[in-house]
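Trying the structure run again after the queue cleared.
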Amino acid sequence: MNNFLTCVFVLLFLNAHSKDHLVVLEWRFKGIEVGYDHLNRCKVSVDGLDLPVSASFRQSDWGTYSLTLSKSIHRIRLVNEAYYEGRWMEHTFENEFSINAICEFDVHAKQVMKVRIEFDLNGAEVSIIRFGKDGKELDINQPDSRFRGKHYPMKIDWQFIHVEEGYDHPSRMMVFVDNVVYGISDQSVESKGGIFALKIPKGMHRIRIVNQSFVNGTWQDHTIVNNYSVEAVYEKLVTVKKGVKVSLLIDLNNEETVTNWE
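Done. Tokens:
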């Protein structure tokens, strides 16, 4: 009996002090037309590693998927599939669905307990909401304790080449640190490019640099999902120990972004 109690105590102790954290993903669709509430499921990957496919749910219901993650920052990717005409297919424009039901986001497993995703069939941006260990919604635009302490300078320079006449849009750079908007550059036309200087926090962070174009009265990410020919994005998980310089050459003819990080 004493040995049994000792084993139970050890298991409880190990569980309480485990370095792994449970993160639950939830998703559903809105804007569903009557008669089109298909079964759906999600293909899930963490840091580029594919995991088993989720169970299936009706699109109007909350689907769930549980992850056990180490306490660091992880990149999560969901690709939704719909059961349609007797087979599973990715819910994408390519398969003639109304939206690309695909999303990617970062999770700091030590802080996040749940992530709730809503796909809008009317075409609105995918809603991604994180909830902390206390069950309350996290404000990803509010810097937290990870951003205190020492910072190092970051310099970003960018330029578009082979810009067609009449399409030299105003552009700017947005910098995200761990999914928090950390800085927005001044705008300039694409052919001129620009230089943006800011300071980023020391330590391990996911840095995401996104070019935006001002088209039809609104700023939009210069990405393939927004029907641009090239993904004007640079993303990297890094340990910041010194000043950083990043260069982006966005080639509209060859449809590629050439980057350099030093």
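Confidence is low (pLDDT under 50) at residues 5-18. Worth checking whether this holds up in the mutant runs.
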